[in-house]
Write a structure and sequence with these properties.
Blueprint: E1 5-10, H1 17-28, E2 31-33, E3 36-38, H2 47-56, E4 64-66, H3 72-79, H4 85-93, E5 100-107, H5 118-125, E6 129-134, H6 139-152, E7 157-163, H7 175-182, E8 187-190, H8 198-210
Parallel strand pairs: 1-5, 1-6, 2-5, 3-4, 6-7, 7-8
């Protein structure tokens, strides 16, 4: 069972956290939130937030965005626009729902400011954590390190989603089996999607859970 409240993190950036989060939202009717994003053009909505809104029927919004495609702590510093943990928690709590997904930014240890990062945000929320990893060479090391770090922070890891993003390398044929043998949490195999409609997202999560 996937908990009704869930924090979604990744082993790195560009591993497909948003697509997986959107797929779960579409399949379960959960509210999905993306509190912060960098690399967002002025006057536009974060693409990640827009996809989450499509999946859950919510509003495409973030608590804070920055133009520069760099780590949030650096983007905030460059713009004189710091963000506090309290601000993010207030923003999330104001949008509370019976079933909620909160997507982090980048990987597990990304700093959001010089004072706190993704781990502190997840700990403050207290939600169980889902780890998203890309099926490619290096995923074993990245996933084992991430799961260990989340567990060391005192949070429950409910599982790992191995996301098939395409491309080709020899490790892809065995990464799923290896992770299932190396980890003590469930590992789900998320398919490469043909499109990102709400129905396609929901079907992707159903296929992952049945696989």
């Amino acid at each position: 069972m996937i908990p009704s409240m869930l924090f979604v993190t990744g082993t790195d950036t560009e591993v497909g956290k948003t697509v997986v989060t959107a797929a779960i939202a579409a399949a379960t009717g959960s509210l999905a939130l993306k509190p912060i994003a960098s690399g967002v053009a002025p006057g536009t909505v974060s693409e990640d937030a827009a996809l989450l809104a499509l999946a859950c029927g919510g509003v495409a919004e973030c608590a804070r965005t920055w133009v520069e495609p760099v780590s949030p702590h650096r983007a905030a510093e460059r713009n004189g626009d710091p963000v506090s943990l309290a601000l993010l928690l207030d923003w999330i709590n104001a949008r509370s729902a019976p079933k909620m997904l909160v997507e982090g930014v980048g990987g597990w240890r990304v700093p959001i400011s010089w004072d706190f990062g993704v781990p502190e945000l997840a700990q403050a929320l207290g939600f169980p954590v889902l780890v998203v990893a890309a099926n490619r060479l290096g995923v074993l090391n990245h996933t084992l390190l991430t799961v260990a770090a989340v567990q060391a922070s005192g949070l429950q890891v409910v599982g790992v989603v191995l996301n098939n993003l395409g491309g080709q390398d020899e490790s892809q044929a065995t990464n799923l089996e290896d992770l299932r043998r190396l980890l003590d949490v469930p590992v789900w195999d998320f398919p490469k999607l043909a499109g990102l409609s709400r129905a396609q997202l929901a079907a992707g999560w159903k296929a992952a859970r049945l696989g």
